[in-house]
Design brief:
single chain, 281 residues, Alpha-Beta Plaits, four-stranded parallel sheet, disordered C terminus
């Protein structure tokens, strides 16, 4: 049963559940983010035990995110499987072009298809929402090419609506910030290596251990670590002793220079051209 909610949101939720019921047994591409958590929850409502959540594990996934995915699947009462993906064996991915995500999602799709075939599951679904279709996302295109279904996007559910519905359903990660893979922190053209990804993972874990920051990216520009935090969280770093601790730890990890981006976190900052910033950005 769905809780009380605005009529437009209920129509979309009901439509997504109706679509999922037509799919038979489904594999959910489950990152543990709010989008995939919601689609897994709705799939469970629609199909009961004919659902399995599958999480891809590789050096580009922080260990803490894998544990979070495991915990969430258990809370949802959904069978969970972890598969190893080998995107770092693909030169197209490792060379880190602007469409790097395309090759990653092709690899993921292949592993999800293997699981579906082995278990005789009819379809694969993911948490793509309607907003994802309005921007250039090579990974989203790759999943669509491979036949991965996207029930949230199909009913026009936006990211704001995903979060609101998740809140109403009592999903504890409804306000969790987006958490793309660690490779998204590496400057295009620089090789993606396990060592570089581990350095980024450790850098972000260290900063989180020292602060209460929620939105965080450590962007890897070779010798430079560029730290982005949520715009309303920048004041958390206005402490000389804290800055010294972070700088010293980042240097121990191999960064020569450590900077805090004064503009704050924004999605896709590795893609943006030089432009004038304002406080309304």
């Amino acid at each position: 049963m769905l809780p009380e909610m605005p009529s437009t949101l209920r129509v979309k939720a009901d439509s997504a559940i109706k679509e999922l019921r037509t799919l038979g047994r489904v594999v959910v591409a489950f990152s543990g983010g709010i989008d995939s958590t919601l689609v897994a929850y709705l799939a469970k409502l629609a199909l009961g035990d004919h659902v399995i959540a599958v999480t891809a594990n590789s050096p580009s996934l922080p260990a803490a995110e894998l544990e979070e995915a495991r915990a969430l699947a258990k809370e949802l009462g959904i069978e969970h499987m972890v598969v190893r993906t080998e995107e770092l064996a693909d030169p197209n991915y490792v060379s880190n072009p602007a469409n790097r995500c395309y090759f990653c999602k092709k690899e993921l799709s292949g592993k999800l298809k293997e699981v579906a075939a082995k278990l005789s599951f009819a379809n694969i679904v993911d948490g793509t929402n309607a907003d994802d279709l309005g921007v250039d996302r090579p990974g989203t295109s790759a999943l669509f090419e491979e036949g991965v279904r996207r029930p949230l996007a199909d009913v026009g559910m936006t990211k704001v609506e995903v979060r609101e519905l998740s809140r109403l359903l009592g999903l504890r990660n409804y306000d969790k910030p987006s958490m793309p893979c660690l490779s998204s922190r590496v400057q295009y053209g620089q090789l993606i290596t396990p060592e570089r990804l581990l350095r980024i993972e450790r850098a972000e874990a260290l900063i989180r251990s020292l602060t209460t920051v929620k939105e965080l990216r450590v962007r890897d520009h070779g010798d430079i670590a560029r730290i982005e935090v949520g715009r309303n969280e920048r004041q958390l770093f206005f402490d000389v002793e804290l800055l010294d601790k972070i700088a010293g730890s980042m240097r121990e990890l191999g960064f020569r220079y450590v900077t805090i981006d004064l503009v704050g976190y924004r999605s896709g900052s590795m893609n943006e051209p030089s432009r004038r910033w304002s406080t309304s950005t």
